[in-house]
Structures are given as structure tokens and as C-alpha cells.
Amino acid sequence: MKALIIVDMVNDLVSGVLANTEDANKIIPQIKKLVDHARANKDWLIVYANDAHHEEDREMQVWGKHAMEGTEGAQVIEELKPIGGEREIISPKRFYGAFDGTGLEEVMKSHGVTETVLVGQHTHCCVRHTAYGSFMRGYKIVVPSDGVCVFPGVDNQAALDYLKNIYLAEITTTDTIIAAN
């Protein structure tokens, strides 16, 4: 089974206090295509790995207050909203990586996941830490270059190269993933 892990496509990081609106808007249609594909194929799990912070979280010292648990800012953007299917998991996170302190590893084991497809924000930060978590757990890692973005001023290609060279991620495109499955 494959897990589409959608990282931090939440209101505060797309159009709110830490908005990356221009770059995020470019990847939304690609992520939507993958979500639709995953919903139509029973061998896919969809994981929404969303920032859902508490006041005392260390990230507050780096980024300031954002995506606070229970707020609208921590909700998945309207275009990608979960529909509540049995293969859709909402996995709130308080750290950069989707596996850190979330119980996601156990969920993925229970579904027999062997491959992670990582999309969302930001290639150089939370996607990178999620790739590390996938790598450490032995999952094959696939990253569509048209389904991830970085903050302005950061080199997305360098971030993708890091994922490829350090975590053995396969860098591809959304259409290639869909065509292969």
C-alpha cells in the first residue's frame, strides 16, 4: 500500500500568518490530482500531516505563533479538505516531521504501507523531516517535484536533490505517479 502524505497544506501556511500563497497555489492542483487518484484506488492511504501547535512548542520560537491546534489556521485548505473516508487519516503534528510524536508509524503499519508519496510544504523543512522519518522506517519515498514548494528565497531544486541523495527519494512528477498506478 502507498501513503500519500500531504504536509502542512493548512490555512495559516497557505494564506495566513506564515503564508506562502504564490508557491502553494502552484502545487494545489497537482496535490488535488493525487488526492483524487488515491481516493479512487483502494491501495492508497491519504494522510493529512498538519501543524497543530500548542503555545509551548519549540517551533513557536522559530516561526512565531501559527497553525494553533483547534484554530481555523490549522485546518486543511478548502481545496484539499478530507472527506472522511476510511482511508483518510488526519495526523496533527507538533514538530516538523509527520512521524514525530504522532502515532503515524503505527497507523501506516496497520495498513501495510510500504511506500510514501510526499507532497506539500516545505520541501526544505517539514517535507524533508517527513522524508527522514520515512527513510528511517524503511519506506520507499517518492516526491513529485510539482507537488512540493519552499519558502521564497529557498532553492527548491537543492531541497529535492537533498531528498534524492540523502534519503534515496525518487523525484518525479504527479502525472508520472498517476500513470504508473
TrEMBL record:
CDD domains: cysteine_hydrolases. Residues 3-175 form the Isochorismatase-like domain. Coiled coil: none annotated. Keywords: Hydrolase. The keyword Hydrolase applies. It holds the Pfam family Isochorismatase. It comes from the Eukaryota. Gene3D superfamilies: Isochorismatase-like. InterPro entries: Isochorismatase-like_dom, Isochorismatase-like_hydrls, Isochorismatase-like_sf. GO terms for molecular function: hydrolase activity. PANTHER family: ISOCHORISMATASE-LIKE DOMAIN-CONTAINING PROTEIN, PEROXYUREIDOACRYLATE/UREIDOACRYLATE AMIDOHYDROLASE-RELATED. Belongs to the isochorismatase family. This is Amidase. It comes from Cavenderia fasciculata (Slime mold).
